[in-house]
Amino acid sequence: MSALVIALALAPAAFSARADxxxxxxxxxxxxxxxxxxxxxxxxTTLGITCSxxxxxxxxxxxxxxxxxxxHAHYGDRVRVANLGVGGTMATQLRxxxxxxxxxxxxxxxxxxxxxxxPAQIVLINYGINEAMQNQTPEQFYAAETALVKTARALGKxxxxxxxxxxxxxxxxxxxxxxxxxxxxxAAEQQVPLVDQFAYVSRLPDWQTLMSDxxxxxxxxxxxxxxxxxQVVGPLVRRLLDGTL
Length: 245
Prior knowledge:
It comes from Paraburkholderia panacisoli. This is SGNH/GDSL hydrolase family protein. Residues 40-223 form the SGNH hydrolase-type esterase domain. Keywords: Hydrolase, Signal. It is a single chain. 50% of the residues lie in helices and 13% in strands. It contains ten helices and seven strands. The strands form two sheets. Strands 4-1-5-6-7 form a five-stranded parallel β-sheet, with helices on both faces. The chain has a two-stranded antiparallel sheet with strand order 2-3. It has a single domain, classed as 3-Layer(aba) Sandwich (Rossmann fold). By secondary structure, the protein is an alpha/beta fold. Helix 7 (138-154) runs parallel beside helix 8 (170-190). It has helices spanning 3-23, 44-47, 63-75, 91-96, 111-116, 129-133, 138-154, 170-190, 197-202, 219-242, and strands spanning 36-42, 49-52, 55-58, 79-83, 122-126, 158-162, 194-195.
């Protein structure tokens, strides 16, 4: 059989294959985002409290504001981070909507309702210190953080878990380590990004001197924590801007 005859014989089959491929539905590609909104939830170390001469209060130099600066330097005004930290709160309160009701119009709503009303694409979650100080069990903390992560993903948000910075008091820090283990477990089970601040800060030389009291960092440590946050959050922002997340 000549080459010309073979080519003619194969042509209909090739045309049919191309037609089938053209008719096969293609998976939609994620849409690139022009504005990225990030909500940062957590306790007083998210809010940004620092203590000096016996007085403690929120400071503008905190991990969230430093993260905003880093993101702005790389991506400009397309990225905004909202600091929704509330001092003295726990993950169970965020889940149930029982935290400080003065922290915004949706603060008293259960997590699902509050998050559904938020346009944020990325959600940072930072708890553990108050759980350790108020004798909550690691199992309770695990259940709360799991619920927070699952709800966020179900609503189309990208959750990012953060472990707490360590505490100078060895007894409290041992309790906190148990909470940190739960955060790591939730991140692994739910396959969500983790910023392990506890491990990072614990490796710093004389990290206790970077604390303003038994729980709250000085501005310099908040700066270092923000750099760790950026290493995880920055690539997520880039993927959202590119439409690949």
